[in-house]
Amino acid sequence: MRHRFITSALVVMLALSTWAKPKIERIKAKRGSSIISIHFDNPLPSAADVANKDFWIVAGEFKTGIHRYVVSSVEPCLSPADVKPPDCNAVDGYVRLHLTENVLADNTKIDLTLINNTAVINVPAFQLSKDQSGPLGTSKSKNDSDVYFSGSYTAVVDGDPVWDVDAFAGYMYPLKHGHLGKFGFYGQARTKKSDNADPNSFLDYLVWQKDIPLWNTWLGPFQTPFFNYRVAGTEFDRDGKQLNFINSPVVTLPLRFSGKISDPLAPSVTFPSMTLQFGTEFVKVEKSRVLAPEKNWYTRGLLGATFSAGYAPEKPAFDSITFSSAYQVRLPTAGEIYFDKRKAPIDRKTGKRGTTPALLGTQARHNVDSKISYNFTKYLGISFEHTYGSLPPIFTRNDHSFALGFTLTLKQTTYGRYSILRP
Prior knowledge:
By secondary structure, the chain is mainly beta. Helix content is 4%, strand content 50%.
């Protein structure tokens, strides 16, 4: 009996050790770079199991033979306790290898092996990613900056032209390698059905962002939440007659529906993802178009959700096609300005509506923005967009409208984008 017990225990221990063996989910490397990023699936290995450079064997396959690359250092990004590289977010689950030389141009595939004291893991002959360097990708790291522009221009016979512009830009800087969060700024401009290209909704603010380590592993599709505090922000319109000062704490809960992937979204996102937002906006009216209480604070409740998915074959003239949608609702606690053309007076003689008046109200302010984008390169493309609702500071209500325009995206991968409630 005793021998059977010992044998059974050994079998169980062997099974457990096999089950707990780390699993490499995906690897990213490209020609001309000396960095290989390795993403692990749960359960994550410890830093001690991967941090030794001698544990890694990296070989490049060429048409003429094999080349051995030497690993100079290893940066783990597996848990909040790790010493992380500057662009590493908590509980990302990846390891970054630094090679003593760049991956050679005629290297076709990479063979990677991890040998530590408990396991041997081999990933044979994975394909190198396409080189995406160039004039449009000149940020210091993937998390530092973000630029997006989408615009359309429509000429109208015997009438004013119509502009539709949607743009934002920002920069986020990690504090103490990300341990204290990130701090930066963001600005947004929105013009809808205007006869010029000036923004009728402009927001700018400083942002402090920090992940909320409520859990160290995935809970179904739920990723670690993020806390965004938009401080010293302003909302103003084209002519400056409406000016609001805002502070806004918002919690963002990201969801991924294709594996336990916690990296920021790339411009050519191919797996479905969602975010949920819960927060408030504390508003102080500095200047108002109408008889709204100035110099007083009031609160807006803020709820939102985003969704994005797509297909990215990354072929010549067809990099990707993506769908994204964002919904927001603001719930003011005090009378706030809005414009609704349905409230405009009707001329009895002509039957046409006159000038839309500025009104005050506390009704919910909804806004929906959905977009299908076709990118013929990584950063350039065209988009077809549907919008409905209104945005601060003057909340001009727009009926269902559609626009076809041009898009430009630079480094659309930063978690800082969560602060603007957009996918």
